[in-house]
Design goal:
Helices cover 27% and strands 24% of the residues. The protein contains 11 helices and 21 strands. The chain has helices at 74-80, 100-113, 127-136, 152-162, 187-204, 225-229, 276-281, 328-342, 367-379, 405-414, 445-457; strands at residues 7-10, 16-17, 33-36, 89-94, 118-122, 145-148, 166-170, 207-213, 232-237, 244-252, 260-266, 269-272, 291-298, 301-313, 321-324, 349-355, 387-389, 392-393, 399-400, 419-422, 439-441. It starts with 6 loop residues before the first strand and ends with a helix. It binds thymidine-5'-diphosphate and magnesium ion (MG).
Length: 458
C-alpha cells in the first residue's frame, strides 16, 4: 500500500493535478490550484462488492404526474415550471446582496404558513440575524425551522429527525464536511456537500434549495459539476442600484428555461411584479433621440423594454463600445451591417447601448430595436413615442420575422402603443383581427434608415 498522496485541484475548472503549478494546464487560470487530501472513502481498488441488480422499466409504461409544491410566490412558480418538485435539488445563484437570502426566507415563510414543513439553515448569519430579517419581512410568526450551522454531518442528522419538506441551505460555499481535509469553500468541499444534500433530497423526497455565490465573471463559484448535480439552476439578476430583480432558469429538469420572474426589492422584501412591461417603461419621458421600445419575449411572456443608444464623437484613440444588458458581439454585428449595408458610419464614434431597467436581453429579435435606437441617435431624430420595434437582422441587411409577433403586438397595444416597426407578419396575414396594432413593414435595414430619416421631415 502506497501512502496517500495529496492532489491539487483547480478551483476554477475542477481538474486534478499531481503537483502544484502556478497555472492550471486545463483552463489556463493562474493561481487556482489548491492542495487537497483525497477522499478517505474513495472506493477500494480491486474486487467489486456484489450488489443488488437494477430493475428496468419500459419507456411507455405509465408515468405519474409530477406533484408540485406551491412556493407561495407566483413568479417563482412560473420560473420553476409550476412549483417545486418533491425530491429535487435547486441551485440559486446571484451576486452578493442581490436578494437571495431574502427571497428564500420569504419562500420558507410562505410555505411554512401553508402547512409545509420548511427549514432554513444559514451558514452566513446567526439565527438572531435571520429572525431580524424575518421580522422585517413580516414573517416572524411563520413556523420555520431555523438553524445556523455549517457542518454537513449534523445538518443531515437534524434533517433526518425533523424531516422538513423544504430545506434552504444558505449558502453552499459555507458548508463543509469532515470527510475531506480541504477548507470550506474549495471545489472539493462544495462538490461533496452538494452531493450529500442532493442525495438527501432524492432519498427523502424533500426539496433542497442551495444558495450559490457567483464569482466575478458571473459563474457560480465552485465547479460546474454542482450545476450538473442539481435539477434546476436559477440565477437572480439585476443591478443593485436598481429595484428590479429578475429570476431566470438556466437549467430545469422539470420545466422550461426561458421563463423569467420579475421582482421589486422594497422595504419589506421582494414584491412580485405582475406587469413587468409597465415597470420597465415607467419613467420614460418625452421622446428623445436614441431610444427605441423593444417588444420582446421572455419565455411565454411578452416584455417591453426601452433600448437606449448614444453615438458620440470619440475623444481619443480607439472608439469605445459599451453595452449594458445586451451582447456586445451582437452590437458589433448590428454596427457592421449598418455600415456595410446602409452606409451609416460609426468610425471615430463612441457607441453606448443600455437596456433600461436592468433586464438582460438575449433575443435576436432585439436587433432591429437596437438598429433603430442607433440610427435615431446618429441622425438625432427621436422615434415616435407610440411605436414599438422588433425583428432579427441578418448579415445581408434583411430583416427577418420574430417569433410570436401577435403576442408582442398584443402586449404593446395593451400598454397604449399605436404602431410597430417590424418585418411583415406572415403568420396572421389573412385573419388579422381588426384591433391588431398596425405594422410599419420593414424588410431590409436600409428601409428602416429611410423611415427614420423621413421622420425629421414629417
Ligand atoms: P440579501 O437577501 O441579503 O442578499 P444575498 O443573500 O443575495 O446576498 O439582500 C440584501 C439586500 O437587500 C440588502 O442590501 C438590503 C436589501 N433589502 C431590502 O431592500 N429590503 C428588505 O426587506 C430586505 C430584507 C433587504
Ligand atoms: Mg445571503
Amino acid at each position: 500500500m502506497g501512502k496517500a498522496v495529496n492532489i491539487f485541484v483547480c478551483q476554477s475548472c475542477g481538474s486534478v493535478h499531481g503537483k502544484w503549478a502556478g497555472r492550471c494546464d486545463a483552463c489556463g487560470e493562474w493561481n487556482t490550484l489548491v492542495e487537497e487530501v483525497p477522499a478517505q472513502n474513495a472506493p477500494k481498488s480491486g474486487r467489486r462488492r456484489k450488489s443488488r441488480a437494477i430493475a428496468f422499466v419500459e419507456l411507455d409504461s405509465e408515468i405519474e404526474e409530477l406533484p408540485r409544491l406551491n412556493t407561495g410566490i407566483d413568479e417563482l412558480n412560473r420560473v420553476t415550471g409550476g412549483g417545486f418538485v418533491p425530491g429535487s435539488a435547486l441551485l440559486i445563484g446571484g451576486d452578493p446582496g442581490i436578494g437571495k437570502s431574502t427571497l428564500l426566507l420569504q419562500v420558507a415563510g410562505f410555505m411554512a404558513k401553508a402547512n409545509c414543513k420548511a427549514a432554513y439553515i444559514s451558514g452566513e448569519e446567526s439565527t438572531a440575524q435571520v429572525k431580524r430579517r424575518a421580522k422585517r419581512l413580516g414573517l416572524s410568526d411563520a413556523p420555520v425551522y431555523l438553524a445556523a450551522e455549517t457542518s454537513i454531518g449534523p445538518i443531515i442528522d437534524g434533517l433526518m429527525v425533523e424531516k422538513p419538506d423544504v430545506i434552504i441551505i444558505d449558502s453552499i460555499q459555507t458548508m463543509w464536511t469532515d470527510q475531506l481535509g480541504a477548507a470550506p469553500g474549495t471545489v472539493a468541499q462544495v462538490r461533496a456537500c452538494s452531493q450529500e444534500l442532493t442525495r438527501y433530497a432524492k432519498k427523502s423526497g424533500a426539496v433542497v434549495l442551495l444558495v450559490g455565490h457567483v464569482t466575478k465573471d458571473g459563474q457560480i463559484a465552485g465547479p460546474r459539476v454542482v450545476e450538473h448535480m442539481v435539477d434546476a439552476v436559477l440565477y437572480f439578476e439585476g443591478d443593485r442600484a436598481n429595484q428590479f430583480r429578475i429570476l431566470r432558469a438556466h437549467k430545469n429538469r422539470f420545466g422550461p428555461t426561458d421563463e423569467i420572474g420579475v421582482f421589486e426589492m422594497g422595504g419589506a422584501g421582494l414584491v412580485e411584479v405582475e406587469n413587468p412591461s409597465a415597470l420597465f417603461l415607467d419613467g420614460r419621458g418625452e421622446a428623445a433621440s436614441g431610444a427605441a421600445v423593444f417588444a420582446g419575449l421572455e419565455g411565454t411572456r411578452p416584455v417591453l423594454t426601452e433600448i437606449q443608444a448614444l453615438v458620440a464623437p470619440a475623444a481619443f484613440g480607439t472608439p469605445r463600445r459599451a453595452v449594458v444588458g445586451w451582447d456586445s458581439g451582437r452590437l458589433a454585428m448590428v454596427l457592421a451591417v449598418l455600415e456595410a449595408r446602409c452606409g451609416v458610419s460609426f468610425g471615430g464614434k463612441d457607441v453606448y447601448l443600455n437596456v433600461a431597467g436592468g433586464l438582460k436581453i438575449n433575443e435576436p429579435a432585439a436587433d432591429l430595436a437596437v438598429a433603430a435606437a442607433l440610427a435615431s441617435s446618429v441622425f438625432d431624430i427621436p422615434l415616435p413615442a407610440d411605436c414599438v420595434v422588433f425583428g432579427e437582422i441578418s448579415l445581408s441587411g434583411d430583416v427577418r420575422q420574430a417569433s410570436r409577433t401577435d403576442a408582442r403586438l398584443k402586449e404593446a397595444a395593451k400598454l397604449g402603443f399605436k404602431r410597430a416597426i417590424a418585418p411583415q407578419n406572415k403568420s396572421t396575414k389573412k385573419d388579422a383581427s381588426p384591433d391588431q396594432l398596425p405594422i410599419i413593414e420593414i424588410s431590409t435595414l436600409p428601409d428602416l434608415i429611410s423611415r427614420v430619416e423621413a421622420l425629421s421631415d414629417g
